[in-house]
Write a structure and sequence with these properties.
Layout: E1 5-7, H1 9-17, H2 21-33, E2 37-39
Parallel strand pairs: 1-2
Length: about 40
């Protein structure tokens, strides 16, 4: 697992406005696993 995860703001736009429930579920799982999260 990487030391830190950097998330782009485009990812959050997809998260909030996407109709793809599978994508949102996978993203939530990844966000829960990441210890050091950063947004750019």
């Amino acid at each position: 697992m990487p030391e830190k995860d950097v998330y782009d703001t485009r990812l959050f736009i997809e998260y909030f406005y996407s109709d793809d429930a599978d994508f949102r579920r996978k993203l939530k799982e990844d966000l829960r696993k990441a210890r050091n999260r950063m947004a750019s």
